[in-house]
Amino acid sequence: MENKRAELHLHTKLSDDISVISVKEIFEKAENLGIEAVAFTNLSNVQDFYEIARYAKKSNVKAIYGAELFYKNENGICGQKLTLLAKNQVGIKELYKVISSIENDGICDLIDLSVLKRNRKNLLVGSCGYDGELFYEIATGGNIKKIEKIAALYDYFEIFPARNELEKEINKKIFDLGTELGVPVVAVNNAHYLLPEDYICRDIVRASYGFDPQRENHLYLRSTCQMLDEFDYLGKNDAQDAVINAPRLISDLICPASPLKEGFYMVAFPNAYGQIKNLAFNRAYEIYGNPLPEAVQMRINDELALIDKNDFASFYLIAHKLVKYVTDRERYVGVRGATGSSFVTFLLGISNVNPLPPHYYCPECHYFEASDSAQDGFDLSKKECPRCKAVLKTDGHNIPYETFMGFDGSRMPDFDINISSDMKLSVIEYMQELFDKSKIAMAGTVCTLVEYIAQKMLDKYEIEQGASFTTTQRDRIISLLEGVKKNDGVHPGGIMIIPKKMDFEDFTPLKKNWAPIDATHLDFHNLYDTILKTDILCPGFVDFLELLQKTTGVKIAETDVNDPKIFEYFKTTDTKAIPEFDTNFMRDLLIKTKPETFSDLVKLIGLAHGTNVWCSNGENLIKKGIPLSKLPTTRDDIVNDLISIGVDRQKAFEMGEIVRKGIIAKNKISQEIITHFKEISKPLGEWYFEFCSKVRYMFPKAHAVSYATVAIYCAWYKKYYLDDFYKADSLIE
Description:
Shape: elongated
Radius of gyration: 31 Å
Low-confidence stretches: none
Helix content: 40-55%
Mean pLDDT: 95
Structural class: alpha/beta
Number of helices: 30
Oligomer: single chain
CATH topology of the largest domain: TIM Barrel
CATH architecture of the largest domain: Alpha-Beta Barrel
Number of strands: 19
């Protein structure tokens, strides 16, 4: 085992300076090399902090959280760098605040030193080797007073492995300056790849961006012995000091810390539960009367109990307020995902999907009648109220609430709200009033290279550079390129909301100028189980429906979803411009399955959006005579089917989760559970388990119902306002 040391400067695959080392590789290599602490210092970002923290939990290597940043100094010289290391937990927040101040000057991302000076109490500032101002000033023959003034900014000086004799001389001068001023001088790798030959990966990425190859093969992760050899020109004792002693001294100044936040930080509204409870019951009384039918009362009670137990009430209230803001302006709102699985969301007006079992109800006298004569409430035949003779309304899509909240409220509700594109800015401005401007941000994303793109980059490089690699070399290069950062982005509608008494920098830095508001610097997936995210999306079908509503003068709510005439389009595959059904694939499905009902349309959407639900699976069963009505095409179908044959509700939900995640198909389950699933599903037919075992992903039924409802709305307008329909379609396109 070599002398233990600390490595205080290296880059991972998410660095803006093109590195091909994964976080996992760094921890593994550090342990093998006897490195006791590693400082992660990606250029211009800290986007791998959460991954680092997860590996640090199970590693003996100490993780130090830092960054390499461009800055603008008092003389206005840009493009030089410094290194920041967080000394403790507070230091991580201070580092986040500095990164939140980053602005782009058209060439590079810069921090302002005035922001650093306000937030450096718990940070250590390093000179960043030959990329820093100290190195530059010495290299250009600056006078000693100016050099000492620059040096005063740093808590430690960094020297990188020298690329030539001149750099060795400058490194010596920096070491001597540190000795004179009493500032630690640390020798660091500045590693961007593990092995010298891996430099080619950086050149391949550079070439894909139109830059010439640099063939820099010195940015690899060295062992302690290699580092001592690298800096032997300092002299044996000084090399020992720079490579081992000084880095360990800096490491010892740093306390263990982690960017990970435990628990969920909910935005709280006073008496949120009381508010949503009153709203839900008042709306239920309007529809179903008071007292409520037993089935309605039980469903509300069950859901409210879980909402209260898991402290979801504020989340529901937020979604209600956002939707109400839009509907009060007489604009259309739709939902996606599993949102419509909750009856409370329906009663709060968040969703137009009623998840109760199929039923009739009277809008006049509140007569209620459950019915199993159809799989979906929209397919129930028309009839009069036996009490008052009014025409009964029909509703209910038979969706279990567990899809949305988990069996015992174990799943964080995810509200996805669809609005028209011209309403988005207005909704965001309303959110700024509701929560305060500083408490909301767009959900940031980090895009990385995937295998296919890495292959294309390598192919292009071979052609343009006249290079040739063996299969083994190609495989290694592609594996190293996978996961390398490509660019930052923003989720199309995701908005993160933090509690009133917290700052975003308690969780993540922010990215500026991502209109209309700042975005999270960290990829939102890292924050998903920590802070609230709601999605305000603008799919084209909402604009389409609103335009149809405006041009025809007929409101969407006035269309008749039970009109049998509109099903002619789906029977004849005349589905041009009808959302979800205007593709050759869906027309082929219509021909092969011959849908007769709204329930059938829901199943078709499930088939289209699932993985291994239709191709090489459901299609074969349809050919064998299994009717579409029996085929489970959404995750909720599995749950309902198992409950219908007497399987315990919790067990049915667990089996539904196994199928919808593709756990059987991916062979990630025990034989015991497989055998059990086979046994309990036998009453549904021997084919049932075989079908489920091939599924790799299943769509939520509420989402399918929402899409099918939109298709029916559009088909109705097409049937009765054909010219307006196609005119609106041409305008939206």
